[in-house]
Design a protein that fits this description.
Blueprint: H1 2-13, E1 14-17, E2 28-35, E3 40-44, E4 51-56, E5 63-65, E6 71-73, E7 75-78, E8 86-90, E9 93-99, H2 101-108, E10 118-120, H3 121-125, H4 127-138, H5 142-159, H6 165-176, H7 183-190, H8 194-205, H9 209-226, H10 231-237, H11 243-254, H12 258-262, H13 270-273
Antiparallel strand pairs: 1-2, 2-9, 3-8, 4-7, 4-9, 5-6, 5-8, 7-10
Helix pairs in contact: 2-5, 4-5, 7-8, 9-11, 10-11
Length: 290
Amino acid sequence: MRSAEQSRDAASVWDIATPSRRGRLPGVSMAGFRARTTGLVDLGVVPYPAVTVAVDLGEGTLTVADADGRRRSGGVVVGLGSVGVRGRGRDIACLQVRLSPPVAHAVLGACAEPGAAVVSLEDLWGRDAARVQERLRAAGSWEERFARAEAALVRRYEAGRAVEPEVAFVWGRMVASRGGVRVERLAAEVGWSRKRLWSRFRARIGLTPKRAAQLVRFDHAAHRLAAGHSAARVAAETGYADQSHLHREVMAFTGATPTAVGGAPWLAVDDVAWAAAAYLSDDGTRTAPA
């Protein structure tokens, strides 16, 4: 299968570390990356249904740019479903954290905009961002880094403001259905009007319910494409009206064709780095792509 070849290619570029145990905070996954080359690495980031925090553990050579070319370094937050994001650097070492949107709301602060493209962690955490980064750099092992990162996240989560249970429930249903549930049905299930759900969900998650469901469905389709399935088959099995519908949506999220997305280098690391947490719901439920 092509996915096995991609995984080997990813392993040839990166040393990837993952925690040896499940974390205390549901809806969170972590992985450590260290480039096996000192040469320039320039990668497009495929949109994913989680908010991503990347902390540079090297000498500050890693930068993350949004679609407009604005660059951030150090500790960087990539918003939910951000399009046109690229990571670039030499001799890269970083820790990445994927946060389900309801968890991200509490961890990153109610004033944060989860749907924003790329922001500095310092803008959200202030001086604490630099302290956390230094503690992660000083750690003697990946396990120690994961433990220190988790402690910082738990502290922030407990001090933060949780989203409404209805919003968390709706996100969980989207994840479980792989984006296949209609917004009207979700509103009825939580006893809200469609307008109220639309407003609260957008304010807390950063995307409208429709766009969030599209993102979850796209992510499932992208992994099927990366596994070597044809675009026609993926479209038929992931809820798209036809292959043209899949093509339009993939282009909208990535600016690339389904064929190009299926071979995306960054997507290839998912089977190694995020195998245990393919999708993250609000309560930590894992739903792996078929």
